[in-house]
UniProtKB/TrEMBL annotation:
The lineage of its organism: Eukaryota, Fungi, Dikarya, Ascomycota, Pezizomycotina. One of its GO terms (molecular function) is catalytic activity. GO terms for biological process: nucleoside metabolic process. It holds the Pfam family DUF7791. The keyword Membrane does not apply. It comes from the Eukaryota. This is NACHT domain-containing protein. Residues 464-625 form the NACHT domain. Keywords: Repeat.
């Protein structure tokens, strides 16, 4: 097993504990971890009575449990250590990591300065003893003092006293320190802030304060809390420090290497703030530092106390150095663990991050699983997929076990997309007693069609696909929903499923939806997601090796699936299920709704047929009877729906009419005419359920308004039998004064984004702004959002109710609003809101007053954003897109309405309004992502409207990361927000990422370039976050922008500035190499952009010799972005690339000449790179 990817099966696998007293100490330690397992806190758990809160992760090869104490002091530390030992009884070493006060001069005369680190050799409990009238006597009998460390710890300490070994400890710690300071945005306070006063010079007022007078010998409260600068402590009382003076003379501004001191540490429950007492203990006990928790931990574990020095334990103590000292201690602790070697343990069941291919998978029986639990004493709940994987690994030690929870979650998140289930939830359930004919009982079977029940139960190898065809509106989707809900394994699938389980997956395509709701990619992602959700232990087996490896690297955003990879993974999952004796039943509704060419449609059909060739798969399809489907499915079982639904339509019409009290009375008065009307409606429908729904609705309005059956007959005769003609009648029936708003609503509903995939449905909240006079209302009147108060529940209810009423009256039923609380995690980022069972009962229900209380009376305003608007049927959208109707809609709005402008302004208003409520954090990132994406499309990125909108958005977007949410993979803004604090990003850098060129050119200044901390602005331009998307998406910066690059270089950006310990120039060269290796959009125009960028960097003084470690560094892969899963371990540079002689570089490590690095690009760039190579070689002559 690869220990670098090891996760323990249970708590017994943890041998290292780190204990911290303060949150700042714990934060530094967590940031120093190589891995943090946020997903395992509930899995590992703790024993009853343990009040500790634990975090888990890894440093080096060690699995580590981290404890943060509830407060300072030995009592809290003792209690926490006791609980830790009971829950984690395999701990071999405990590190107490944090901050301390120190003795400035050790007995040997060597100095300790602030920022040094103390490692315990032993501890002395200073407040354990007897208080006599004139003195305190510490107990120092053998049984009263703490024991010495065990032989292993003593061996480590002795080893670190060897100067050569201590230097390796310091060197490694310094490497970690630089990274942590940059990540946490903590600066070295500087030697000028390291002030040591004479021991007899007390921190107090030395003027007119009576309480602070020397005679009294006390210090006033204001002096205690004041800083040295506040009370003007006498600088002449400072003690000279040779280490600090030497650093000042060298003129170096770099962070000094921390001194590491091993010795005795004094511990007690009182903070040491007396220089005289400090010096007394140092002289009498050989103590070199003071802290407060060591006594509570020392004798319970083999323990090392590792503390960063933040003060001199005197009255001048301040908090200036605490953050820095905590980081230094964490850095040394990390290096200590990297050098600490545990005794080799016997092999144990483990969770690993390794991907694997289980070539011979034989599932264990339930009895064998139960036996395993009993033998190994697993009493805590274990996730099924973890447990099964572990058991298989023990059963066959030659196989690797796929059980990385975090990687599995990332794979699943990358497959999922918003609205994946939306269409299935929108389809109305079959009316009572309809469609029963398709699954008849044995004694009622008829054979007017290819019997579906016979097909489903058959175990023969032929006819694995069944096709349901029907003309528009005939009820195909409703039938597919009926079958998905009603099919039963025992009743309908035997003998095909004899002795097997059945996994079902469905895809209801939707032409009016987003791209993934009507594409091959959406189909494959949906089917694969549903299979792996039901069988998660298959994930490492079926996912491509390189994607699985990338999923284990949290710095990569998985958003780059392609159809070939998806299909291969789906095939492997089907084969994996076959080995598990599992059948697969796919439901694919609406093949005709895919947005594709005939060639692509033929490919989709071929793909489905290939899937059906596997013996454990059957596929149920539906579509309109187009020629391409008629030809492809001529020899498979099928039905034509409109030929078989007359009785169902008659049942529906009867039920709707007879449920109306007024019709019941008319029926009693004239039964013959009433039933004749029902038959007339049924006959005129010609098998089209959608037509029936609309006509019955209109006829019932006639009864409601007081008319009789004869009037209903007349109305029926006037209604066209053709759906499109009927829609036209509905449109013309809109009141003339409302036709403009009706056209606005319909054009907004028809709007689609083509430059990027809009992952948002149209929401009722969006349409609540259709009464605005112009589509750019939020830009014309920036305070427009204040008209919407998210805290005014009554006003919110009235606004949405009014919008619904306008929707119904203006659009005449062509659009409908449904309530989708179950889609919350799809629609918004990181939402974990509790959804009541009562609310879920209304999932997919039409929005109407009867469910208002569930939506508006709850504690969370999120429900108001779950009201989605869509077309009643695809036929409605097709009708509205016809040239004749488009011309009519544009006539009502005096030209084509700018639907994108409206959506951007509506969502700007919502985003700004959400700033004023706490729960808006879950909704805001998704809304912001749409707005930023829309502002970045090619025709808008330079436009004044985009610049103005971006300026209004800036404060709202910069507030988003403050919510500290984990964002889902659905939004384009996600990688930017996930790295916001790490890179110290701002709205300008986000604009660079999204290539909002107009805004960048308007607001990028020299001060911003020079003052930017964290990731340099130059690096944002050179290493685009959307590098992998340029070939298929028209937003985001996919290659360096020459205009922006020229501007930031003019403003003084330094190509040799460092980020994460590597120069921006080295990172750029590595990025170019990786870009070429991974074969992204390497068109001629993109290559030219990189060539120009390389030339500009060399021209601005980029180094011509680079350390080999820089250009081989993995730092380039730490960038959060839309990236491919391709393996990062390719040979970035040729292995025989020569290094530069050390005498030329004046560096201690091997270096490469930039000219040689550029030479490796010649194959891809051609002769265009030669003049750059010559330029770099000419510059080398100066070395």
């Amino acid at each position: 097993m690869d220990n670098s990817q090891y996760r323990p099966l249970n708590r017994d696998g943890f041998e290292i504990a780190i204990i911290c007293a303060l949150p700042r100490e714990a934060n530094a330690v967590l940031c120093a971890m190589d891995e943090i397992w946020y997903d395992c806190r509930h899995y590992y758990g703790k024993i009853t009575g343990d009040d500790n809160s634990y975090d888990f992760g890894k440093i080096g090869l060690h699995c580590v449990v981290i404890v943060t104490l509830p407060n300072m002091g030995s009592v809290k530390a003792s209690s926490a250590s006791r609980s830790l030992k009971m829950s984690f009884n395999s701990i071999k070493l405990a590190l107490l990591v944090g901050i301390c006060g120190a003795v400035p001069f050790k007995r040997d005369g060597s100095e300790i300065v602030l920022g040094d680190v103390i490692i315990s050799e032993t501890i002395v409990e200073l407040d354990y003893g007897r208080q006599y009238p004139g003195s305190f006597k510490r107990k120092d009998a053998l049984l009263d003092v703490h024991g010495r460390p065990n032989e292993e710890i003593l061996g480590l300490l002795q080893r670190w006293k060897i100067p050569t070994i201590l230097e390796t400890l310091r060197h490694g710690s310094m490497w970690h320190l630089r990274y942590l300071l940059q990540r946490l945005n903590i600066d070295y306070p500087g030697a000028s802030q390291d002030m040591l006063f004479q021991s007899d010079y007390i921190h107090k007022h030395h003027g007119k304060c009576m309480e602070c007078s020397d005679a009294v010998g006390t210090v006033c409260q204001s002096a205690i809390t004041a800083s040295c600068s506040d009370i003007l402590c006498d600088q002449s009382q400072l003690v000279a420090r040779h280490r600090l003076e030497d650093a000042a003379k060298s003129g170096s501004s770099k962070i000094p290497d921390p001194g590491i001191h091993i010795g005795s540490i004094g511990t007690g429950n009182a903070v040491m703030k007396s220089a005289q007492h400090r010096d007394h203990h140092a002289q009498s006990e050989s103590i070199i530092a003071f802290e407060m928790e060591g006594a509570g931990v020392w004798d319970k574990f083999n323990c090392l106390v590792i503390k960063g020095v933040c003060d001199y334990a005197d009255s001048h103590k301040s908090k200036t150095w605490q953050d820095y000292a905590a980081v230094v201690a964490a850095a040394v602790a990390k290096e200590v663990l990297r050098q600490y070697v545990t005794a080799q343990r016997l092999p144990q069941p483990a969770i690993t991050n390794d991907n694997c291919h289980l070539l011979h998978w034989e599932p264990f029986s339930r009895s064998r699983q139960d036996s395993f639990r009993n033998v190994h004493g697993i009493h805590h709940p274990t996730p099924r997929y973890l447990f099964d994987g572990v058991v298989k690994g023990i059963g066959n030690s030659s196989e690797k076990v796929p059980c990385n929870i975090h990687a599995q979650q990332r794979i699943m998140a990358s497959l999922q997309f918003p609205q994946m289930q939306e269409r299935a939830q929108q389809i109305e359930a079959a009316h009572e007693q309809t469609y029963e004919w398709i699954l008849p009982s044995q004694d009622k079977k008829t054979y007017r069609w290819d019997d579906l029940a016979t097909w489903l139960s058959s175990s023969t190898e032929t006819g694995r696909i069944y096709w349901i065809s029907g003309k528009p509106g005939s009820g195909k989707s409703t039938l597919m929903r009926f079958l998905r809900e009603r099919l039963d394994v025992q009743e309908h699938m035997l003998p095909w499923a004899q002795g097997c389980s059945v996994v079902r997956a469905f895809y209801f395509s939707w032409s009016p939806g987003n791209v993934l709701q009507k594409s091959l990619e959406g189909l494959l992602r949906s089917l694969l997601f549903q299979i792996l959700k039901q069988k998660p232990d298959l994930i490492p087996e079926v996912i491509d090796d390189m994607r699985w490896n990338a999923a284990r690297m949290s710095s990569l955003t998985l958003a780059d699936w392609n159809n070939l990879e998806l299909f291969s993974s789906l095939q492997r999952s089907i084969l994996g299920l076959q080995k598990l004796f599992t059948r697969v039943l796919f439901f694919v509704d609406g093949l005709d709704e895919f947005e594709c060419s005939d060639e692509m449609c033929q490919d989709i059909i071929g793909m489905l047929k290939r899937l059906a060739c596997t013996g454990n798969v059957k596929i149920l399809l539906s579509s309109r009877p187009w020629n391409i489907f008629q030809d492809s499915f001529s020899d498979i079982p099928k039905i034509r729906l409109e030929d078989l639904t007359r009785d169902d339509i008659n049942l529906y019409v009867q039920a709707k009419f007879l449920n109306n009290p007024r019709f019941q009375y008319l029926l009693r008065c004239d039964q013959k005419t009433a039933y004749a009307l029902i038959s007339a409606v049924t006959d005129k429908a010609e098998g089209v359920f959608l037509w029936v729904r609309l006509v019955v609705r209109d006829l019932l309005k006639i009864i409601r308004d007081g008319d009789d059956i004869r009037t209903m007959y007349q109305k029926l005769e006037e209604i066209p039998a053709d759906l499109n003609d009927y829609f036209k009648c509905l449109l013309f029936s809109v009141d003339p004064q409302h036709r403009r708003e009706a056209s606005v609503i319909l054009q907004v509903a028809l709007h689609e984004e083509h430059e990027f995939t809009s992952l948002h449905p149209l929401r009722l909240f969006d349409l609540s702004f259709t009464d605005e006079s112009s589509p750019d209302f939020a830009l014309v009147e920036p305070l427009n959002h204040r008209k919407v108060s998210m805290n005014d529940r009554e006003g919110l209810r009235f606004r949405l109710d009014s919008t619904l009423r306008r929707l119904n009256s203006r659009c005449m039923g062509l659009l409908e609003c449904t309530y989708n609380p179950g889609n919350l995690s799809d629609l918004f980022c990181g939402v974990s809101t509790e959804i009541s069972k009562g609310t879920l009962l209304y999932q997919g229900r039409k929005f109407e007053p009867s469910i208002y209380s569930e939506i508006f009376n709850g504690p969370d305003l999120l429900h108001s954003f779950m009201l989605t608007v869509d077309f009643l049927h695809r036929c409605c959208r097709d009708f509205l897109l016809s040239p004749q109707i488009q011309s009519l809609l544009h006539q009502y709005t005096e030209g084509q309405y700018d639907a994108r402008m409206f959506m951007v302004n509506a969502r700007i208003s919502q985003l700004l309004a959400l700033q004023r409520v706490e729960s808006g954090c879950s909704i805001s990132p998704g809304i912001a992502s749409y707005i930023i994406s829309a502002l970045s499309v090619p025709e808008w990125k330079d436009a004044a409207v985009s610049i103005k909108a971006a300026h209004i958005l800036q404060p709202a977007v910069e507030a988003l990361p403050c919510y500290d949410k984990t964002y889902s993979t659905g939004w384009y803004i996600e990688p930017v927000l996930n790295s916001w604090y790490e890179e110290k990003s701002n709205f300008l850098t986000l604009a660079i990422d999204f290539d909002m060129r107009g805004y960048c050119m308007a607001y990028l200044t020299e001060d911003q370039v020079q003052a930017k901390k964290g990731r340099p602005i130059l690096d944002y331009i050179l290493r685009p976050r959307f590098e992998a998307t340029g070939a298929y998406m028209k937003i985001g910066n996919s290659v360096p922008s020459i205009d922006l690059l020229h501007r930031v270089l003019t403003f003084g950006a330094d190509p040799n500035s460092l980020y994460l310990g590597v120069s921006v120039w080295a990172l750029f060269l590595s990025a170019v190499a990786d870009w070429l290796h991974r074969g992204f959009d390497t068109s001629a125009i993109n290559k030219q952009a990189y060539l120009v960028s390389l030339r500009m960097m060399i021209g601005r003084g980029a180094a011509l010799v680079l350390p080999r470690s820089w250009v081989l560094s993995d730092v380039h892969w730490h960038l959060h972005r839309f990236d491919s899963f391709r393996n990062k371990n390719h040979d970035r540079w040729p292995k025989d690339l020569p290094t530069v002689e050390k005498a030329m570089t004046r560096l201690s490590q091997p270096c490469y000449a930039v000219a040689d690095l550029l030479g490796t690009f010649r194959v891809d760039f051609g002769p265009g790179i030669d003049d750059l190579i010559a330029l770099a070689r000419a510059g080398m002559d100066c070395y």
